[in-house]
Automatic annotation (TrEMBL):
Originating species: Kribbella shirazensis
Sequence ranges assigned to domain Enoyl reductase (ER) in this UniProt record: 22-333
Domain of life: Bacteria
Any GO MF annotation of the entry: oxidoreductase activity
One Pfam family recorded for the sequence: ADH_zinc_N_2
InterPro entries, per the entry: ADH-like_N, ER, GroES-like_sf, NAD(P)-bd_dom_sf, Quin_OxRdtase/zeta-crystal_CS, YIM1/Zinc_Alcohol_DH_Fams
Name of the molecule in the record: NADPH:quinone reductase-like Zn-dependent oxidoreductase
Length: 335
């Protein structure tokens, strides 16, 4: 049931679709039927969509555990990829109370690599007035993950020394700014070519992972965010203070079956027997985080870092750039 609608109904829309798992070659640009909303959902006319590592995993169907968990065993159940979005409310379900037709919103939806996408009301917030649609579209998943890693699981406090491994990526670029906003002293780890970006985001110190060893005993940190997803737990522990916390955000090198799940589970078990705390989490998608991020954005403490924009029909190229590790900060898809 729909309570409000803006403009004439368009039967079809341009979108990126995939009918099989694989690399970026499985993505196709075509016209498909426009989605419909349930009572608690919002139809958003997408102006821009963000690209994140999780979307790559959903495209590739890896780790395979994701397929078993219900995303589609042989092929994806959701044909249109994309989750981050920013746009204008086109239609609202009958139970929606926070938004009206014409509102500018951002958040997490289903199938945002398309002209229209559906989002649950509780995963949207009003778009920050100071951001363009392109900037707003790259905030929700990456910045929300960074926020939860630092606050909910890292329990960050002012004055702490924080190490961010993988500081030049989507989550890392926000983690630097958020940690500084919370009053921490921040060291960022990245590749040689991306150290300038990490500095520009506000890191107090930068380490080049090709020549600097954060676990050589020179420095110890109260909180480590491991976004790179591949250091051994022993290395993380050597870099922590005796009662420090390491939060595992990524897990890219654990194999096709389980990804980084094995390392994450080992961390949780080990944490029961040592003075240091090793945490792992699956990020939640909630409007409250977006509203907190909006306050920080409007205060000038957090700014999206966009590497490049791609039109909708170039999503496969954007995916290839992301998979190759060449993206600095975030990439955005314009509709």
């Amino acid at each position: 049931m729909v309570s409000e609608q803006l403009g004439p109904v368009t039967a079809h829309m341009p979108a990126i679709v995939q009918d099989a798992y694989g690399d970026a070659s499985v993505l196709r640009h075509q016209r498909i039927a426009r989605p419909e909303v349930a009572d608690d959902e919002v139809l958003v006319r997408v102006h821009a969509a963000g690209l994140d590592r999780g979307t790559w995993h959903l495209m590739a169907g890896k780790p395979y555990l994701m397929r078993i968990a219900g995303l589609g065993f042989r092929r994806p159940k959701a044909r249109v990829p994309g989750r981050d979005l920013a746009g204008t409310v086109e239609t609202v379900g009958s139970a929606v109370t926070r938004f009206a037709v014409g509102d500018e919103v951002y958040g997490i939806g289903r199938g945002s690599f398309a002209e229209y996408a559906v989002a649950v009301e509780g995963k949207l917030a009003s778009k920050p007035a100071s951001l363009s649609f392109e900037q707003a579209a790259v905030v929700p998943i990456s910045a929300g993950t960074a926020l939860q890693a630092l606050t909910d699981h890292g329990r960050i406090a002012a004055g702490q020394r924080v190490l961010i491994i993988g500081a030049s990526g989507g989550v890392g670029s926000y983690a630097i700014q958020l940690a500084k906003a919370f009053g921490a002293d921040v060291t960022g780890v990245a590749s040689t070519a991306k150290l300038d970006l990490v500095r520009s985001l506000g890191a107090d110190r930068v380490l080049d992972y090709t020549r600097d060893d954060y676990a050589d005993g020179t420095d110890h940190y109260d909180l480590i965010l491991d976004i790179a997803g591949n250091p051994k737990l022993s290395r993380l522990r050597r870099a922590l203070t005796p009662t420090g916390t390491a939060v595992l955000v990524g897990g890219e090198d654990g194999g096709n079956l389980t990804g980084g799940m094995n390392r994450s589970l080992r961390a949780l078990v080990l944490s029961l027997f040592v003075g240091q705390r090793l945490a792992w989490f699956v990020a939640k998608e909630r409007a409250g985080d977006l509203e907190q991020l909006t306050e920080l954005i409007e205060a000038g403490q957090v700014t999206p870092s966009i590497d490049r924009t791609y039109p909708l029909d170039q999503v496969p190229d954007a995916m290839r750039q992301l998979a190759s590790g060449q993206v600095r900060g975030k990439a955005v898809i314009t509709i």
